[in-house]
UniProtKB/TrEMBL annotation:
Family: Belongs to the short-chain dehydrogenases/reductases (SDR) family.
Protein name in the entry: Short-chain dehydrogenase
Any one GO MF annotation of this record: oxidoreductase activity, acting on the CH-OH group of donors, NAD or NADP as acceptor
Keywords on record: Oxidoreductase
Keyword Oxidoreductase attributed: yes
Amino acid sequence: MTALFAGRTLLTGKYIVITGAARGLGYDFARAALDAGATVLMVDILGDLLTERAADFQAEGFPAIALKADLSLPDEIAAVAAKVAQEWPHLDGLINCAALATGVGGVDMMGYDPDLWDRVMTINVKGTWLMSQALVPYLKQSGQGRIVNIASDTALWGAPRLMAYTASKGAILAMTRSMARELGPFNITVNSLSPGLTLVEATEYVPAERHSLYVNGRAISREQLPEDVSGTALYLLSDLAAFVTGQNIPVNGGFVFN
């Protein structure tokens, strides 16, 4: 990623947890937040890669911390909260980015594997809820907490042959609104961000026709890059978005309009 936010101070003094941070959009969010002045706890199940990526950031002088965690295991989510309490004076933001996106363009609803359905829902939905639940007490302490849930525009246009992922991201949209109502009295904002199909490691297996569908259907007709999404995430984490909550922002070049 180009250092879009290098030298800027949008998140100076902020402490941010980002899940799914070893690669893809989560990694790019971590890079952008660090560039914007934040201290970042990077969380991912890919422990070796996560450690390597955090070490690279540290070598550049960025305050990045790595912690391996499986979001299907409540004890490991609790360990993330314990790390926050141990390392930081407070917590300002959480990006729930960790997700499974298997089977893009694969089987239809009639052939979908029930065990895979359960795994996707456990990580994408339950994991987002449990991580938020574990960290809300620390967000309350900051007096200005921010939660950004990463949804997907697949839930907005009803992507075929991707039912579990699409359904899980629809649940994220609904959960975001409910969380915003519950946490608003504590001055915690909760919003979702819905990227389109983005060129990252996790989408390398996506069939070429699905990529073409997106490119040809966008108002801005090109492939979507990770840095196309990061700026919106930083905005939602920042003081600029202090009065924005319960909203979903599609970032997809105009493939889906709100």
